[in-house]
Amino acid sequence: AAGNRAVHYQPANLAARAALVLRDNDNGNLVTASPKLYPHMWSWDAAFISMGLAYLDVGRAVRELDTLLSAQWRDGMIPHIVFTSDTDYFPGPDRWGTDLAPQRPDGVRTSGICQPPVHAIALRRILETARKTSQADAELAESFAERAWSSLYRWHRWIVRHRMPDASGLVAIVHGWESGMDNSPRWDEPYAAVLPGADLPPYVRLDLLQVGDPGERPSDDEYDRYLWLIEQMRRADYNPDKVVQTSGFLVGDVFTTALFALASDTLAGIGDELGAPEGEIAELRRWAARARAAVAMSCHPETGMARDRDMRRGRWLATETIAGFSPLLCGGLAHEVEQQLISTLDSPRWSGHPDLLAAVPPSVSPESEDFDSRRYWRGPQWPVITWLFGWAFEQRGWQRHASEFRAQGVHLVSDGSFGEYYEPFTGKPLGSTNQSWTAAVVLDWLC
Ligand code: 9WN
User: Fold this and answer.
1) How confident is the model at residue 152 (pLDDT cuts 50, 70, 90)?
2) CB of 389 sitting under 6 A from ligand 1
3) What tens digit of pLDDT does each residue of 43-74 get?
4) Which one, 138, 331, 367, 384, has least CB within 10 Å?
């Protein structure tokens, strides 16, 4: 049925199929991000996946986050990939070469960068789900939360200590992969300044063997830059401060900053319930306030859209992408400015575009000259991103908007293929099918 828009699953059947995707991708202690393209655990995928697993088995959801946290680096960083023994993904652990980094975790191989900090959001969701099912589930989730809280606090503290290097207050990333939106036009300008050295060791891309059309993935030129940045980090021994000093790519990521604000407040709230140390809870709230202010400060004076910042060159990056709506995730704007941003999101330039199959925001506006309807983060719609905005809207009391996003998100995925991302006009699933985080958000939408 994959990709056949004539097929349309009813909610109960769609949820059942989503559960099967998670079961099929489960290797016992981790659910791989997808069956073939991504045969390992990814950090922010794992957060969404655990939230989906909670609807099936709270113990299994907890095990997923336990697996991720057992790969946390000694300094607090949660790495972006936890590797299984599968060798079909490139770059694998040998190419990352993190085995020599002094802060690496014992007994598991990981990449050497991170991804957006959405884990506290997943923990909140797991607690809510577990409390609705049974007393035993609630106790299981709560005892996990007690165990995990300080690990998540250390993760947020790592971001503050090592990734807020300038006065903008934005969270810095040292690789486009850290944003989770790898080849977004957001990064075109900073990547143009990354010039791969002649001593970049040769490599063979494996991702192109898994997708039918290379036009759905980043280009070779982009991959050279991705690999060159890894080379630079290896040479800095993955020392976090040295990496920030030496990386050819250092960008204040406004979307990650908004998620950091949202997740820090969420973690503080969980901390209140658990009786976590008051000083640490207060710190989380201060970090959230600072990040929220940084997101608001980044907004373009005319369009109101939030901007990333090239920290190497001290320049705002005003490309028109979904990240421009970051302030809606975490708040912090004056009421009228926020209303204007919501109108832009709903307008024909974005979710209200008349040609969209489902009225959820694409990764890049179809009206932008950067838009490419099939290429990864340069135009397609990503169900997880819709989920994030919907969840944030619910927290902010915008129930109507949240349920519209949920209904339209379900419409997008109702073909039952669980695409990684979707062509916005036809709804064709692109990249991988049976992508775990897509299945997870579907469970959250429907259960
Ligand atoms: C690189 C796993 C990950 C997601 C990212 C998505 C993609 C990897 C890749 O897949 O990135 O990290 O090889 O393309 O961009 O958001 O976490 O699903």
Assistant:
1) very high
2) no
3) 999 999 999 999 999 999 999 999 999 999 99
4) 367
CA 346 to chain centre: 22
| Nearest alpha carbon, ligand 1 atom 12 | 177
Ligand 1 center to residue 156 CA distance, Å? 21
Q: Is 253 tagged catalytic?
A: no
Question: Does the annotation mark 182 as catalytic?
Answer: yes
Residue 187 Cβ contacting ligand 1 at under 6 Å? no
Q: Which residues contact 426 (CB under 8 A, 6 or more apart)?
A: 5, 357
Side-chain half-sphere exposure of 364, counting CA atoms within 13 A? 25
Give nearest CA residue, ligand 1 atom 6: 180
Q: Is residue 287 in contact with ligand 1, taking CB distance under 6 Å?
A: no
Angle formed by the axes of helices 119-133 and 58-69, to 10°? 160
Q: Which of 45, 64, 182, 308 is catalytic?
A: 182
Percentage of the chain lying above the pLDDT 90 cut: 98
Task: Give pLDDT tens digits for 172-219.
Answer: 999 999 999 999 999 999 999 999 999 999 999 999 999 989 999 999
**Residues 340/325, Cβ–Cβ less than 8 Å:** no
Joined tokens for residue 39: 């045969």
Closest by alpha carbon to 31, among 52, 58, 18, 49? Answer: 49
Give the pLDDT mean for 282-292.
Answer: 98
| pLDDT for residue 133 is more than 70 | yes
| N residues, the chain | 447
The predicted structure's pLDDT at residue 1: 43
Nearest-atom number in ligand 1 for the CA of 34 is 18
38 lines ligand 1 (CB under 6 A): yes
pLDDT at 5: 85
- Token digits of residue 345: 């999101």
Rg over alpha carbons for the chain, rounded to the nearest Å, is 20
Q: Does residue 37 have its Cβ closer than 6 Å to ligand 1?
A: no
Cβ(17)–Cβ(410) below 8 Å: no
